[in-house]
């Protein structure tokens, strides 16, 4: 029986779609580690520490959820954490192509790794962090896409960047 899954990603920022995956994963597993990839090449809006705090605030009401950060290879993080099950969300067929490549690569690097895919509710299929950032740059109402704390943080961060 699997008791822990690692849900890796950049989460820049966390969306309601991510939270849907986390909540549904908690219905299947006692412990979910949301692991923030600290990859500066992606040029995130939020620092890893800020993303961790936004996840903690957003998932505060979901028991069994932990947060962590990692740099480098996910398989190295998994070995360090002693967990060998990856959770990934799939929205569309295009996600599957990328995720399948990652699954095969991770399995080649660490054969005992398993990847589990969950699909979000249909109302979150179109959500992506990139879309949210674009909407935020245009000062759109984000309440249907992200938690209130994330909307406030995005608007504050983008106001500073514009100044």
Walkthrough of the structure:
The N and C termini lie far apart (52 Å). A 3-stranded parallel β-sheet has the order 1-2-3, with helices on both faces. The protein is built from 6 helices and 5 strands, in the order βαβαβαβαβαα. The mean pLDDT is 92. It has a single domain, classed as HUPs (Rossmann fold, 3-Layer(aba) Sandwich). 44% of the residues lie in helices and 18% in strands. By secondary structure, the protein is α/β, with parallel strands linked by helices.
Strand content: 15-25%
Number of strands: 5
CATH superfamily descriptor? HUPs
CATH fold type: Rossmann fold
Largest sheet: 3 strands, parallel
Weakly predicted, low-confidence segments: none
Please identify, by name, the CATH architecture: 3-Layer(aba) Sandwich
Whole-Å distance between the termini?
52 Å
Written as H for each helix and E for each strand, in order along the chain, the element string is EHEHEHEHEHH
The tally of helices reads: 6
Within the largest sheet, what's the order of strands? 1-2-3
Which structural category do the helix and sheet elements fall into?
alpha/beta
Number of domains: 1
* Overall morphology: globular
Average pLDDT reading: 92
- Report helical residue fraction: 40-55%
């Amino acid at each position: 029986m699997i008791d822990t899954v690692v849900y890796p990603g950049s989460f820049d920022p966390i969306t309601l779609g991510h939270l849907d995956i986390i909540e549904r994963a908690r219905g299947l597993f006692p412990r979910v580690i949301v692991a923030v990839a600290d990859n500066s090449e992606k040029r995130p809006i939020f620092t890893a520490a800020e993303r961790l705090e936004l996840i903690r605030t957003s998932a505060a009401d979901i028991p069994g959820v932990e947060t962590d950060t990692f740099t480098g290879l996910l398989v190295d993080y998994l070995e360090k954490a002693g967990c060998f099950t990856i959770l990934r969300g799939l929205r569309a067929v295009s996600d599957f192509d990328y995720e399948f490549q990652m699954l095969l690569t991770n399995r080649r690097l660490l054969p005992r790794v398993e990847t589990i895919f969950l699909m979000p509710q249909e109302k979150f299929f179109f959500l992506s962090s990139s879309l949210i950032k674009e909407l935020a740059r245009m000062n759109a109402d984000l309440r249907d896409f992200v938690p209130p704390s994330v909307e406030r943080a995005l608007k504050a961060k983008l106001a500073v960047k514009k100044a």
